[in-house]
Amino acid sequence: MSKVQFATKNPRFPVAEDLYGLFFEDINRSGDSGLYPEMLRNRSFEDSILPEGCTAIDGTYGFVTPKGWKDQFGGGEGLDRWLDGIEPTPIPAWYSENADMELDYADTLNSKRQAALKVKLQPGGSIYNIGYRGVPAEDGKSCNFYMFAKAPETVKLTLTIEKKSGEILAQTEVEVKVGDTYERYDASLTVSGSDYDAIFRISAAEGGEAVFGFMSLMPAETYKGHGLRKDLMEMLEGTHSKFLRFPGGCIVEGFTKETMMRFPNIIGPVWERPSHQLLWHYRTTNGLGYHEYFQMCEDLKLEPMYVINCGLTCQARCPEYIEGEELDELLQEACDAIDYATAPADSKWGKVRAEAGHPEPFGMKYVEIGNENHSEPYVKRYKIFYDALKEKYPDIIFISNIHTEEHGCTTEVVDEHYYSTPEFFYLNQNMFESYDRNGPEIFVGEYAVTSGNDVGNLYSALTEAVYLLGIERNQDIVTLTSYAPLLQNVDYTGWYPDLIAFNNHQTFGIPLYYVIQMMAANRGKEVLEVQTEGPQVYSENVGIPGFVAYRNGVTLKNVECQGEKAQVSHQIVGETVEENGEWKLKTGFNMDLESFPGVENHKKDICYVTFGEEASEKNVFEADVKIDSPDIPVSVTLWNYHCPMLFCLDETEKRSKEWSPVYTEHYSWTIQNGVATPELAHWSQDKPIGESVEVPVKYGEYTHIKVETRHDGFDCYIDGEMVQSVQFESHPSMAAAVTQDEDEVIVKIVNLSDKPDAVEIAADCDLQSDYIAEVLTADSPKAENDFEAPRKVAPQTKMLTGASGNFVYEAPAFSMNVVKLKK
Ligand code: AHR
Fold first, then answer.
1. Is residue 249 in contact with ligand 1, taking CB distance under 6 Å?
2. Predicted confidence band at 656 (pLDDT cuts at 50, 70, 90)?
3. Rounded distance, CA 737 to CA 528, Å?
4. Which of 377, 276, 370, 373 is nearest to 323 (CA)?
5. Quick one: DSSP state of residue 636?
6. Cβ(25) to ligand 1 under 6 A?
7. What's residue 452's pLDDT?
């Protein structure tokens, strides 16, 4: 039984009007092929071109930047896992039959295009494009096609959308006229019959030659007729968001100067926008450009939040720092971009916007100076950009990446990012309570459960919901939030999880999508003081045991897990050498993680291994351990699990060995100089979670060490004697936030426990008996949505009676509830 008590008479502060927003970044191919529904992959024929200044690794498998950051390239196909089942071709996505294809890098459509496709077709010959894992053809729908082409002799081309079996679903003819200059040709194709794995073919019954400068095939029906994919825009509309942060994310910075996202490159006719390689492993043609983002904001009624590059390439990827005239140029581009959005139609940039179809200014409420930038190089550039931009655009709210006020700068809003475990989110629900109310406002611009045993399911969504409730209670200081990343083409995943998944014709939201929807649709006007009481629970831990030696000189024998002889299952760092039933632990550092944030604090030269494969909540690890000298630290590690986050800094490392220290977390019992300390360990941080105690380890000879887990801690034994019992911190199973408007009180409750909770709701006013509850739950906390069951975890609306100034609301096990009470 829990209790939520609130006071309607003395509201604390008004709700933050833009609290829930969206962050769009072109990741997981969510631009071209996603929100921007281009059906032809490699429509500009430039995908196989290595990013400028980069050097190929192993043929075309990967590339390395001049500063040393490496990425997979796959000849322009991207990550190796995206290639599964794709027939190799030198010009990604394009194939030929009785035709020769060749890229021409000289005679291109215009100075912004780096390649054109030259084809020689035999009579009946053709070229075809396989799209983004299929061209989606839907019965009765029309598609618009255009291309820029030229031909040495007039050539008659037949355009078809067809099944792989050859069955034609749509057809039209185009005649490319003889001539030396590229001309534009348009066509419309209406589909009869559906196939989402179709191809787009260009054939010549009589044969002939042509050069293609650029092409596009798009659905005729788009959201509000403005070119963006309808079902995805409707999903975004369903979030009830108030702002859109764009265009990134790390892509704002790029991995070299040439791959930075720059305003002049994302405006104008799409075929005149240069394409560039994104650090999420593919090339964008920038079809979803600056104007399109603003049109999207207007159509979805979102305040624009434009992220500018302030003179750094991505600091997590071997950065380059821009100085002098080049930096001035970037500052000028930021001004031009703001003018494009805000200046009247008769001004320089207003005219360009008007020519693009929007004479009225779009407006610009927020501008963020950089993304995830930090330390001295950022502070220096932030100051230059902030001072210049604020003077010119005093009404815009500027956002900083770090607490630049601590470095003497004026700071209005700070963008903080949190990617972590479910535990992090519920344990930190009160983190903003201690923030200085006289300091800058906070924008939680990126957050997500990205590690732990629960990612993208109901349980992780509920832990994120608890965190959001903490933000709702502190929305006087946290005024903006957005989850990251937003969209995932499931056939091109480069980062998981993402709020909305799609393929070339379907979409679904993960459970958190509905949490955000419920939060954002039920805002109220004022935040109320709320007191909660209820049972405490412990986090569930599941994983396998392991052991770390931080230096050479450690030997193990008679290792047992759950009372059974155990073998090494993963050599995460370093290696073990087995001889006569003894395992010598040999330290090493077998990963290239030099640029990983926090690497400087990490103990790199270690031996870190796990035992057994069976992940369990209850683990008993025991072994005879010989530590040659007292100053060699060792740890028994508990509940090791491999975090499934897909982002990897060096994508050229094939992930055959999925376990790495970066993606592994555990509790540990660490012993050094005869003193033991319990810790929570993740990558570069080991946080003590209990007192240090003296333990009778015998150095230079075998000591029997045993650690046994409980649901609320673990017990540690040396030579059969218990020497330490570690107790975890519990957390409340229920969290709540309450807001109100004139007629209604909105009580938001999350129940994180595995049992229904009878929540006593105690108000300082009368409430009408009839009320509505929106409830998000499922049969299991592990429940996820997918294409087959996109609303398995989605809110249900219940019409209930029995409310009063003091009544009991039954919150189901593992649920999020929005209880709407009439005053
Ligand atoms: O959301 C994915 C990435 O996470 C963003 O590009 C970056 O800002 C953060 O590191």
1. yes
2. very low
3. 8
4. 377
5. E
6. yes
7. 75
Residue 316 has pLDDT above 90, yes or no: no
Give residues with Cβ within 8 angstroms of 528, minimum separation 6.
Answer: 6, 7, 8, 11, 12, 738, 739, 740, 745
Length of the chain: 823
Nearest CA to ligand 1 atom 9: 249
pLDDT for res 402: 98
Is 248's C-beta closer than 6 angstroms to any atom of ligand 1? yes
Report helix, strand or coil for 425. Answer: helix
- Residue 666 tokens, joined: 């555990």
Query: Which atom of ligand 1 approaches the CA of 25 most closely?
Result: 6
Q: How far apart are CA 749 and CA 231, in angstroms?
A: 30
Overall average pLDDT of the 231-249 stretch: 98
| Predicted pLDDT of residue 600 | 56
| CA of 365 relative to ligand 1 center, distance in Å | 22
Burial grade of 354 (CB within 10 A; 0-12, 13-18, 19 or more): middle
The CB density around residue 380, as the number of other CB atoms within 10 Å, is 16
Sign of the C-alpha dihedral, residues 300, 305, 311, 316? negative
C-alpha 498 – ligand 1 centre gap (Å): 11
CA of 723 to the centre of ligand 1 (A): 44
Q: Is the pTM of this model over 0.90?
A: yes
Q: Indicate if ligand 1 lies below 6 Å from the C-beta of 371.
A: yes
253 lines ligand 1 (CB under 6 A): no
* C-beta separation of 80 from 59 below 8 A: no
Residue 492, ligand 1, Cβ within 6 A? no
Cis ω for the linkage preceding 394 (within 30 of 0): no
Looking at ligand 1, which atom is closest to the CA of residue 249? 6
Q: Answer whether residue 649 shows pLDDT above 80.
A: no
Whether the per-residue pLDDT at 401 is higher than 90: the answer is yes
Write the pLDDT tens digit of every residue in 733-773: 999 999 999 999 999 999 999 999 999 999 999 999 999 99
Integer CA distances (angstroms), 242 to 16, 17, 45, 669, in order: 11, 8, 37, 46
Please identify which residue in the block is written with the tokens 């570069």: 684
Angle at 296 between CA 293 and CA 302, to 5 degrees: 100
Inter-helix orientation angle 290-300/324-342, to 10° = 40
Q: Which two tokens stand for residue 695?
A: 């333990």
Phi, psi for residue 526 in degrees, rounded to 5: -130, 145
DSSP three-state, residue 276: strand
Strand partners, 736: 749
Q: What is the dihedral of CA 136, 139, 140, 141, to 10 degrees?
A: -10
CA 34 vs. chain centroid, Å, equals 15
> Facing residues of 259 across strands?
none
Q: Is 323 exposed, middle or buried, given 0-12, 13-18 or 19+ CB atoms closer than 10 A?
A: exposed
Tokens 């009869």 — which residue? 192
DSSP-assigned beta bridge partners for residue 688: 679
Q: What is the mean pLDDT of residues 662-683?
A: 87
Q: Please state the φ and ψ torsions of residue 468, each to the nearest 5 degrees.
A: -65, -35
Pair 764, 499: CB distance under 8 Å:
no
Reduced to 3 states, what is the DSSP secondary structure of residue 187?
Answer: strand
Residue 556's DSSP bridge partners are: 583, 625
Q: Give the pLDDT mean for 177-191.
A: 98
- Collapsed DSSP state (helix, strand, coil) of residue 35: coil
- pLDDT the model gives residue 421: 84
